[in-house]
Amino acid sequence: MARERKFSTEDVYQATKQILLTYGYEGFNFGLLAEQLDISRGAIYKYFDNREELITSFMLYELRLFLVELKSIEKLHSFEEQLDFLLDLIFKNSTVPRLIEIGRRIPVNENLKVKENISQLENLHLEMYKHLQGFIDQGRQEQKIKASLPDSLILGMIFQTIMIPNHFGIPQTEWILSIREILCNGMLN
After folding, report:
1. d(Cα 17, Cα 163) in Å, to the nearest integer?
2. If 117 and its partner were Cys, which of 48, 56, 90, 112 is the partner (CB 3.0–4.6 Å)?
3. C-alpha 15: how far from its chain's center?
4. What is d(CA 16, CA 18) in angstroms, rounded to the nearest whole number?
């Protein structure tokens, strides 16, 4: 049995993230988490009823951190500055798409805390788009974004760039600049 030791919620969340990214939702369990943190499974159950509650709490934590950073986009004055900031933020948080996909696998069960967490995640997701709407509006006001393009398509294109594999190991700075070039000017001469 693992020895009892003190641990923080952040310790639990960092270990949860590592396990989710390594083993996925299906492979995540309190045994692995307890082993990684060198604590007993019972210590985890003192705070979380089940893995769904823990994972949705972790996702709330991650999304809140992302939103704190995203809010800084409003301090930037031009669309170009905002776009650079957004691309840097997306690539800095490159694990977010995998975590979102894992989150979609979480069944909504009878646990009230899980239901509440999922509801909060949906609200935070809407808040994220509220902050991004200002970015889109700025681009339209500066006539950098075509009026005929739907907002959701623009944001989807930007956020999906993180999923493009960099098979040839192009340095990240150059990779982001190339993605920005394609987003802003297309790929045709």
Report:
1. 18
2. 56
3. 16
4. 5
Q: Which of 73-77, 110-114, 144-148 has the lowest mean pLDDT?
A: 110-114
Domain boundaries, the chain: 1-47, 66-185
Residue matched to tokens 């943190």: 37
Fold topology of 1-47? Arc Repressor Mutant, subunit A (1.10.10)
Our separate counts of H helices and E strands in the chain read: 9, 0
pLDDT tens by residue, 83-124 = 999 999 999 998 888 888 888 888 877 889 999 999 999 999
Residue 10 has pLDDT above 80, yes or no: yes
For 176, the enclosing helix (H) or strand (E) is helix 172-185
Closest among 90, 27, 102 to 58, alpha carbons compared: 102
| pLDDT given at position 4 | 60
Kindly tell me the burial class for residue 174, based on how many C-beta atoms sit within 10 Å of its own C-beta (0-12, 13-18, 19 or more): exposed
